[in-house]
Design goal:
With 362 residues, this protein is mostly helical. Helices cover 73% and strands 1% of the residues.
Amino acid sequence: MAGEMTLPHSARRERPVFPGRLLRVYFGSLGRSLITLVFLLLAVIFGPGAVKWLLLNATFFGDADACRLNGGACWAFIATKFNLILFGPYPAESLWRPILFLALVGAVAVYGLFARRSYVWVIVLWIIADIVGFLLMSGDLPGLTLVDRARWGGLPITIGISIAGLASAFPLGVLLALGGNSKNHLISTPCRLYVDVVRGIPAITVVFMTFAIIPLILPKDIVFDKLFRAGVGLTLFTAAYFAEALRGALQALPRGQAEAAASLGIGYWKANFLVVLPQVISASLQPIANISIAFVKNSSLLIIIGLFDLLGSARSSLYDGNWQGFYKELYLFVGLIYLAICLFIQFYIASIERERETRISR
């Protein structure tokens, strides 16, 4: 018809019907069908009992005796020990500080989801929120009373050390990857040796050795607390994994990219940061997400040096003799918090990947 606008083929393509899409996802092949049927069978066998324990026979209010009488999940225990689980032994009169810190982190997280193209700005906001949170919790701001770091604990420790550690480990991993890829053996050999050695050591060993060795190599008048030393250990450990993830993408990148930059008169560092690294990081988003998730989970190792992160604070709530025995509810609650954090990291990285693929397809 004259004057009728012709849509591109991609725009005219109809989206698959929702039920049909679900069928293809769960029953699109023999393997998918078997996995779906197995999960459905498990849901039929264990689902009613789980719902009964989690909700129907659960105790949401009351004391430990009421929980034992009902026989279901004791969510009253979580409600009673909520502050201890989430914030550890932090002073009750100053709990607004860690709460404000978590609110700042949550605001930056939400902003990051809607401003995915402002990568650098979002990272800067994460670091600012972390610095402000540490200043708030320590009381190093005018008008606030000082709180010893021995009284810090719970979710703010997990979040704070994860942000600070990842923000420090990633640049160090970039330098190690570039160093390992260098043609100068005086630079590449130590970098590769560091990555190989650290990746072959358990994280708990690195954290403990850093905690024990740092005071020995520093002058006696320079003292760092346990939280800083533990953060250094996790940072050094994670940097090796970042370096290895980036090294693979760096070697897969065509050499013509760097050669083209050099032919235009762009220096080594400028070429790497403007031409090479953006492509390398873009190709390594999924490994970066996995390493970040592993860092969050490795923060639970802080308990071995006497720091009460989220998991450590949760365990301390079981020391109350009146509430002993309700560990299943406790670990389920803490596990859901860790799951939410890790799912956010995975979802955020996946959204960046989808946006990148959309830009490339255009």
